[in-house]
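Q: What structure does this chain adopt?
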Amino acid sequence: MARLLTEMTAAVVSMIAGISGIIALLNSKLGELRTYIASLEAKGFDVAKYQVQLHRKLAFPMVGLVMTLLAVPFSFVVANRGALYGIGIAIVIAIVYWAVLSAFEAFGNNALLHPALAAWAPNLLFGAAGLYLILTLET
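A:
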């Protein structure tokens, strides 16, 4: 029992060390991108595209949460209509999300929207839609 506990503790410590290493790597890449953007901006270049990419790196990990918010209401609907209906809805939602993400990225790259808004707007829109569907779901 003690050996098992020691092995489990070592595994957890190793996992935490791996996660902290990934976070450090992500932060260093973001720091490098911020430095690159600042140097280009100081030279007078248009950096809107790079700022959008910086914010997308921060916003993209939230896609899983947003898609989960959307999936929960549809999981109740699929129970009544079948699995193929659910797969079709999932494909349509993914395509629409990708199109909205691309449109907002284009708006941000052309400085029609603030870079942070261009990167976060698809998550905010789809997250709000998912939250609305969850709150109005009849169970």
